[in-house]
């Protein structure tokens, strides 16, 4: 006979609260919606992007959404700080011969193409 471990409601709530606290404490949060990449495409690895973003001061969420990475700021920052963030992100992307980062008012995020053919 197998042994079944059970949790009380309070223990379960504590686990969820701890997980949410750890999630909110992360500087870079990643949410994946669509992770498909076309065959033979050169792509920007998510790990490289996250590594770069971890070095920045501004906490962000990265949404993997089809052909784009959508980078959303998790707190309001002064415009000058935002511009500096965009410039450093664009510089990082150019060093990898990639495209530039662009602000999309429609999506409310910085858009970075995930791949190129």
Task: Describe the protein in words.
The chain has one domain (28-116): Threonyl-tRNA Synthetase, Chain A, domain 2 (2-Layer Sandwich), CATH 3.30.980. The protein is built from three helices and seven strands. It has helices at 9-25, 46-54, 79-95, and strands at 28-34, 42-43, 60-65, 68-73, 102-104, 109-113, 115-116. The strands form two sheets. Strands 1-3-4-6-5 form a five-stranded mixed sheet, with helices on one face. The protein has a two-stranded antiparallel ribbon with strand order 2-7. The longest helix has 17 residues, at 9-25. It starts with 8 loop residues before the first helix and ends with a strand.
Topology:
Blueprint: H1 9-25, E1 28-34, E2 42-43, H2 46-54, E3 60-65, E4 68-73, H3 79-95, E5 102-104, E6 109-113, E7 115-116
Parallel strand pairs: 1-3
Antiparallel strand pairs: 2-7, 3-4, 4-6, 5-6
């Amino acid at each position: 006979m197998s042994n079944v471990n059970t949790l009380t409601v309070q223990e379960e709530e504590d686990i969820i609260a701890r997980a949410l606290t750890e999630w909110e404490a992360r500087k870079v949060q990643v949410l994946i919606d669509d992770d498909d990449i076309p065959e033979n495409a050169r792509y920007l690895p998510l790990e490289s992007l996250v590594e770069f973003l971890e070095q920045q001061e501004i906490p962000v969420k990265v949404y993997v959404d089809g052909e784009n990475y959508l980078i959303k700021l998790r707190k309001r920052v002064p415009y000058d700080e935002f511009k500096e963030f965009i410039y450093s992100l664009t510089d990082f992307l150019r060093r990898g011969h990639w495209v530039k980062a662009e602000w999309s008012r429609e999506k409310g995020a910085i858009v970075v193409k995930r791949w190129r053919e």
